[in-house]
Amino acid sequence: MIRVTILALLAVLPVAAAAQRGDWPMPAKDYAATRYSDLSEITGANAGRLRPVWSFSTGVLGGHEGQPLVVDKTMYVVTPYPNVLYAFDLTREGYPLKWKYRPPVDPNALGIACCDAINRGAFYADGKIVYNLLDGHTVAVAAATGQELWKTRIADLSQGETTPVAPFVVKHRVIVGASGGEFGIHGWVKGLDLETGQIVWTAYNIGPDSEVLAKPGTFRPFYDRGAELALTSWPADVWKNGGAPVWGWMSYDPGLDLLYYGTGNPAPYNPEQRAGDNKWTASVLARRPEDGTLVWAYQFTPHDSWDYDAASEMILADLVVDGRPRKVLVHFDKNGFAYTMDRASGEVLVAEPFVDVNWARRVDVATGRPVVDSTKLTGASRGNVKNVCPTLEGGKSPASPAAYSPRTGLFYLATNNMCMDYQATRATRIAGTPFIGATTPYHAGRGGHLGAFIAWDASTGKTVWRTTERFPVWSGALVTAGDIAFYGTLDGWFKAADARTGKVLWRFKVGSGVVANPITYTGPDGKQYIAVYAGIGGDWLLLSGDVRSDDPADVRPPADFMPDIARHTSQGGIVWIFAL
Amino acid sequence: MDLRPLVPALVLSVGCGGHEAAPATTQLEARVFAGGVAPPAGAAPALANPFRGDRQSAAEGERTFGAMNCDGCHGGGAVGWVGPSLRDGRWRYGGSESEIFQSIYYGQPHGMPAYGGLLPPGAIWKVVTYLQSLEPPASVPTQSWK
After folding, report:
1. Lowest mean pLDDT segment, chosen from A160-164, A397-401, A564-568, A570-574
2. Inter-chain contact A111–B79, Cβ cutoff 8 Å?
């Protein structure tokens, strides 16, 4: 009987290795985007004895965002441009390369990517490593051999589209999007066939219902009524270059069959060139992964006037809110509010600030709209609007995804404590060049520190603990069943903190600032390992040189708010692995 | 004057710094054209800056630098962002006035769009005049020493 069962199981297993419990097969570990691992060897009692066991220079300077994958005793690392894919054999001493895949990537992408030539990682599915090249291609590579299986052009560099986002695979669909909110793209997501790479559907985030895939009868937003919302909330034709890029993280609820992702800013940054709500920029969209059908959408920042992309992850959790168990989606927006939403309907249940916020007084959950402070509205005719909190880097950057522990019931995230002045100017759209129209110098927020790592209760909308950091915190979070939360800092420390108290238990200087996301996995020897990239960059590219950035002749405008970061870090990409 | 024989010579002359020289036609195809407009064929711009050292022209060039979105990559004040600094005295494709002109007119690999299809040569020369008027900083990052 048992033998029959095993044979039956074998019969339906795909040939390719399936991800195991101790593996890390997708960017956020699981479809719910929790970045939580049930590995528990590393605890508060022993975390102080963590030590580095391996490191590897990627040979690439610049921002190392994203995270490695670990599947079937192999670690997969995608570098920033030129997007090399390394496969390391974890069964052999020194973790030598099994293979390396180095595709041709159009160097013109370097001039079209807004914010450093970063890559947010790969996705393992059905024996394939699927990832995006910066120049607008998705590739699938055989995980066992490094052989390229297919390569599909998904984006158009000449229109300002680049593709640092990590693909997301649901069943046989590969979901991809493009960056370019600073280049006036017409934002979209596409669904590709996992076997062939063929583009099966394209869904725009702005424009007519027929292109947004908002179909009568199936599109039911909680707060909005009527047709053509993503068209009528724009001036005529302006939506065609209206942004709404997709560069963050996706999640999926198999029970509801809904794919969730956030969209970036409307273009240009000068809001007076685009009257209206500008749907669905700065929004969360819920779609059917099979054919892209839009089921609901919600806009966090209508008529965004501050570059508040909503590209941050949508973490799926089951929480008790107001005494009722709810299936929720939790989102920490650049705009400084944390949203706890019903993920079936798109209703906002809780929306509270997780950093100092002054562009809006609160979010009215009855209407779903923020109550905006009109003195913080920006525009070319309004001159230099002073002291808007948070900055366009976000109260939390979408580049640094949060983690959720079902054991503590808390969310863990890197935050920025900064405010900005916002001088909008009229921008001209010239295809292939930036389409921005704002100058936005930053300064430290209340308290003078520039960042913090916090624990958040999404049922009530309250901060549980906060560890302040001198510099903006720009790494993703990891939390484990050992109740340890891991994060890195811009000045190059990688830290382990008690998930219940925030107390830092261990730290190690990793050689360059951390803008990547830690992972954990079980090695072939059964031990728990932690891995993370060092490599400052992304939005901090400008400030990561080793030159004194407080040089009187150095007129780089954002540098004055953290003049001495260059004393603590310089560029360089390193993969680190730690263990007890 | 026919432009064609000129282009390979120019590309070769700025092909230092470890950059591979290639036939001009290939390199031109690899460029991004600002606004989708290719530089005109057969229109040979002057190779000497008619506005050299002229402050008024530099000021006009600075305005063009903003209006054409150059600052979106090279930063306000040309101090560098995702594109390299244009005031640190280090030039990947040559720092003479004619080399800077060619980089703007024809574009360069690594995403520098060709503006020759959008801007008349005189406007480009004023941008060159602006860039050459900028004071370099006292020090530059190690990673730009290449």
Report:
1. A564-568
2. no
DSSP state of A538: G
Compute the nearest-CA separation of A111 from chain B (Å).
4
CA angle A15, A20, A25 (to 5 degrees): 85
A307 is catalytic: yes
Band (A551; pLDDT cuts 50, 70, 90): low
**Cross-chain Cβ contact A107/B109 below 8 Å:** yes
β-strand partners of A463: A456
Do the domain assignments include residue B68? yes
pLDDT digits (tens, 9 = 90+) for A256-267: 999 999 999 999
Lookup: tokens for A128: 């394939």
> A521 Cβ partners below 8 Å, 6+ apart?
A22, A23, A24, A37, A39, A70, A528, A529, A531
SS3 of A248, please? Answer: coil
Contacts of A434 in chain B (CB under 8 A): 69, 71-73
Question: How many angstroms away from the CA of A331 is the closest CA of chain B?
Answer: 29
Contact A437, A426 (CB under 8 A): yes
Tens-place pLDDT, residues A45-65: 999 999 999 999 999 988 999
pLDDT tens per residue across all 146 residues of chain B: 333 333 333 333 333 333 333 333 434 457 889 988 888 886 567 789 999 999 999 999 999 999 999 999 998 889 888 888 898 888 889 999 999 999 999 999 888 999 999 999 999 999 999 999 998 776 666 666 54
Consecutive H or E run containing A485 = strand A484-488
CA distance A310 to A317: 19
Rounded CA gap, A531 and A74, in Å?
A: 13
Contact (CB<8Å) A434/B69: yes
Count: domains in chain B: 1
pTM: 0.91
**Structural contact between residues A141 and A414, judged by C-beta atoms closer than 8 angstroms:** no
Whether residue B1 lies inside any domain: the answer is no
112-131 in chain B: CB under 8 A from chain A: 112-113, 118
In the predicted model, is pLDDT for residue A300 greater than 90?
Answer: yes
Alpha helix segments (H runs only) across A121-239: 209-212, 229-232
Which residue is it, tokens 């008619």?
Answer: B50
**How does pLDDT run across A21-43, given as a tens digit for each residue?**
899 999 999 999 999 999 999 99
Q: What is the ipTM of this complex?
A: 0.81
Per-residue pLDDT reduced to its tens digit, A69-127: 999 999 999 999 999 999 999 999 999 999 999 999 999 999 888 888 999 999 999 99
Domain housing B39: 6-139
Please give the DSSP secondary-structure letter assigned to residue A274. S
- How far is Cα A47 from Cα A308, in angstroms, rounded to an integer? 37
Pair of tokens at residue A342: 């019903």
Residue B88: its pLDDT value, please? 84
In a domain, B86, yes or no: yes
Long-range contacts (CB closer than 8 Å, 24 or more residues apart) made by A98-101: A98/A74, A98/A146, A99/A145, A99/A146, A100/A146, A101/A141, A101/A146, A101/A148
Backbone φ, ψ for residue A442 (5° rounding) = -105, 160
What's the CA gap between B38 and B49, in Å, rounded? Answer: 22
User: Which domains, from first to last, does chain A contain?
Assistant: 19-579 (2.140.10.10)
Angle (CA) A173-A29-A204 rounded to 5° is: 35
Residues of chain B contacting residue A113, judged by C-beta atoms under 8 Å apart: 82, 111
Q: Return the percentage of chain A with pLDDT > 90, whole number.
A: 88
Strand pairing category for A384-388 and A250-253: unpaired
Burial A176-213 (b: 16+ CB within 10 A, else e): bbbbbbbbbbbbbbbbbebeebebebebbbbbebebbb
Indicate which CATH number applies to the domain containing B96: 1.10.760.10
Torsion of CA A246, A572, A102, A166, to 10 degrees: -20
Name the residue of chain A whose CA is nearest to B143's CA: A545
